Amino acid sequence: MMNNTRRPRRNRKSAAIRHMVSETQLTVNDFIYPLFLIEGENTKEEVVSMPGIFRYTLDLLLEEIREAMDLGIMTFCVFPSLPESKKDKMATESTNEDGLYLVALKTIKEKFPEVCIMTDVAMDPYSSDGHDGIVENGEILNDETLEVLAKMAVAQAKMGADVIGPSDMMDGRVGYIREALDQAGYTNVSIMSYTAKYASAFYGPFRDALDSAPKFGDKKTYQMDPANATEALLEAELDYMEGADMLMVKPALAYMDIIRLLKDNFNIPITAYNVSGEYAMIKAAAEKGWLDGEKSMMEMLLSIKRAGADAILTYFAKDAARILKR
Ligand code: PBG
């Protein structure tokens, strides 16, 4: 016989005790559901590398939002997928008030005023170069891009966006956007900054979904090096000082330490983006019968929350909400 007075297993001996001492609870309020929007009507196309995730025309996107709301999901992040013909070097289409994205934001907000709509601010969906900023001689221009991003943000706010999500990683963009929003009278519109956004291979399926892969090179001169953690603190400090209301870490799964680091060092909500590649990995393994898809999904989401995320952008939002409802 061991003579231990401390036996941690005593707190695991029944479901009742395990629930009583459980430190982390995942709820449907934690989820932000990313959605892909395409032109046209009455069409939804499944993203090949993301089974169960579709690109919707606006009419069907509204139905998808309704369905998600019935499961208790109240925050949505919409990404547009544009035909090449609408793309140019300056992402002009991003401020077209009759264009796909801005009309969609307005329509969603009119139809469902109670939901929280988060946007994406970056040039890549509208850029013929497929980069998040203006490209000149193979370089991504920082300060010139800020003006484009600020105009995009103000146009989105005008359509009723609740939260602006700059995902571009240009230096100084949070402050620049904050000032533009305030000057235009949108002092109440929030900014959830993609603060620690890494140059990651896990975005692959998303770029398939939006046809937004860079036409040349990679995004390493603006997105962060996966080797760096201290630099995430610098990015967070800048975004905080520049007025971000929430700080995001992206991707989530391979960056749990960064989520915890920001959670421990900042007094505003920390969010995490459970990105397309993280979704695809679980779906693919589950399809092959190599993983229990539901259990690994729930464990992944719970762990992201335990790491310190106050909210999680996840393509699993509906699947997980259904399980939480049971
Ligand atoms: C682009 C953007 C990306 C994602 C969100 N916004 C991809 C990229 O930076 O190339 C990725 C999301 C995902 O993989 O789920 N501004």
UniProtKB/TrEMBL annotation:
Keyword Lyase annotated: yes
SMART domains: ALAD (SM01004)
Lyase is among the record's keywords: yes
Family: Belongs to the ALAD family.
PROSITE patterns with a match to the protein in the record: D_ALA_DEHYDRATASE
Reaction equations catalysed: 2 5-aminolevulinate = porphobilinogen + 2 H2O + H(+)
Subunit structure: Homooctamer.
Entry-linked NCBIfam families: PRK09283.1
InterPro entries referenced in this protein's UniProt entry, alphabetically: ALAD, ALAD_AS, Aldolase_TIM
Pathway assigned to this chain's UniProt record: Porphyrin-containing compound metabolism; protoporphyrin-IX biosynthesis; coproporphyrinogen-III from 5-aminolevulinate: step 1/4
Keywords: Heme biosynthesis, Lyase, Porphyrin biosynthesis
Gene3D superfamilies membership: Aldolase class I
EC numbers for this chain: 4.2.1.24
Domain of life: Bacteria
The protein's name: Delta-aminolevulinic acid dehydratase
